[in-house]
Amino acid sequence: MDEKQAIQRLKNGDISGLEYLVACHQVRAVRTAYLITRDLGLAEDIVQDSFIRAFHAMHGFDATRSFEPWFLRSVVNASVKTMQRPARQVPVGDEADESLLAELAARVESVESQVESIEIQNQIWDAMQKLSPRQRAVIVQRYFLEMSEREMAEEAGSAIGTVKWMLNAARERLRGLLSASQRSEK
User: DSSP class of residue 131?
Assistant: First the structure.
């Protein structure tokens, strides 16, 4: 089965097509939600709900388009909405940080660069947590999902200028937070 066949099955009311789409897109979707929420359990719940919503909305999906951008947009929007709910506090788990740092450490060559890399990663994660959920979302879309500004605008249904403004504001805020973090360490 390929993606088009899976989508056609879903459009015909056959849920078996969903299994193929989950197998193809779940890992990237969970990573996307996690980068916005910083809570693996919450990210998994968001993705599961997004797949269910996709199944129910499949009749309106344009089968000539790729499923992944459409689906990831849903995941990003659900992640942002979840994080914007009043009094929502998402704990940052040591387990998630440790696995991320272990992966990062495996990539670097020397002990000195491992230490430096870990410090930089921690600074970036700390700064990312201080961004609004929407700012985190545009950073994730641009740098993790590698979406162009045009793709981001098309998926969001907004003007490219709006996306450029949001991305610039998020980068400026992140840059300012990282500069403040570096100054406080000195």
Answer: S
- Distance in angstroms (rounded) separating the CA atoms of residues 71 and 50: 8
This prediction has a pTM of 0.60
Tokens 């609004």 — which residue? Answer: 132
Share of the chain above pLDDT 90, in %: 23
Locate 45 and state its tokens: 């719940």
Segment 36-51 shows an average pLDDT of 91
Q: Is 121 exposed, middle or buried (0-12, 13-18, 19+ CB in 10 A)?
A: middle
Rounded-to-10 torsion of CA 164, 26, 44, 7: 90
Fold of 1-90: Rna Polymerase Sigma Factor; Chain: A (1.10.1740)
Domain ranges of the chain: 1-90
pLDDT digits (tens, 9 = 90+) for 87-96: 444 444 555 4
- The CA distance from 132 to 122, in Å, is 18
- Residue 109 confidence (pLDDT): 46
